[in-house]
Amino acid sequence: MPVVAALREIAFWRERARTDPHRVMAYRNAADLVAGLSGDEIAALGTVQAAWKRLPGIGASTAAAICSALAGTVPGALVEARAEARELLPDDDAASRALAARLRGDLHAHSHASDGSASIAEMAAVARALGREYQAITDHSPRLRVANGLSADRLRAQLDEVTALNAAFAAEGADFRVLTGIEVDILPDGTLDQDEALLLRVDVVVASVHSELRMEREAMTVRMVAAAANPRVDVLGHCTGRLVEGERGVRPPSEFDAEVVFEACAQFGTAVEISSRPERRDPPLDLLRLAVEADCLFSIDSDAHAPGQLAWLPWGAQRAVAGGVDPDRIVTTWSRDRLLAWSRGE
Known about the structure:
Blueprint: H1 3-16, H2 21-35, H3 39-45, H4 49-53, H5 60-70, H6 76-84, H7 94-102, E1 105-106, H8 120-129, E2 134-137, H9 152-172, E3 177-185, H10 196-201, E4 204-208, H11 217-229, E5 235-236, H12 258-268, E6 271-275, H13 285-293, E7 298-301, H14 313-322, H15 336-343
Parallel strand pairs: 1-2, 2-3, 3-4, 4-5, 5-6, 6-7
């Protein structure tokens, strides 16, 4: 079977299953290395594991997978990953399954341009394979240096990359589109961390708090209301900033007047994100119900930093059902044309 595809599929299933990301990256890095070799170079290495292990970044597991794929057999690691894959939602949760089936896209995901692990092209290919109609790429803004946030120039280059990718999809006749976007930091004074002219150019703007999460309640409320009221903002990302599990540890939610913030979201048509990431589960159910009472719009998003995480949307659907969210108020159940008309303020 094709070597690069096999390596990337192993990584996909392990990411979906929340395997240690460092172990997963071994397969992604191996896929990138093989993709960069010529046919003659691959033929010279053949199916000798010892020869492959002499290449930088190739270990015993990845060498075995490469040699199996070159020999035309399914690598053992891929057989195992497929066999271990489980449905994300229980069989008896019909409501969550039905809502997950209605989701047409995802407005929050990252590529390796910031802190993701894969290219835009690979993220798009996986989203398309999952049956999505659209997938936004929302890499971080420049202030978040720890996540390699995009400068204005790097974001402009990314817009060109997405344009070319979408042209290729159109040439194939594919009913799929990558949406341009950014996850822009909400600065302490409520302003946004990116050139306003660029925010006008992208399809989707997700605004999130990533710094000074312990800001005093009143100041945090003012900060978040300013973002929710900004006409450039489409989605208020992971609003409390909490972490409930995972390798980064736990973190309490930020304090703010949720009723005031959600009233601003409802008034200005800014969707409240329902994060599908298991370590976030944001907003908490009590706040999610407040947002429902405020008649907010919602966006069920993966906040994926790897292709396999794009498959996590059913967990967000499950939280939406638990919070009593009307599916018609979820913008990611909308068609691409309707979604884009909303994001453009039409």
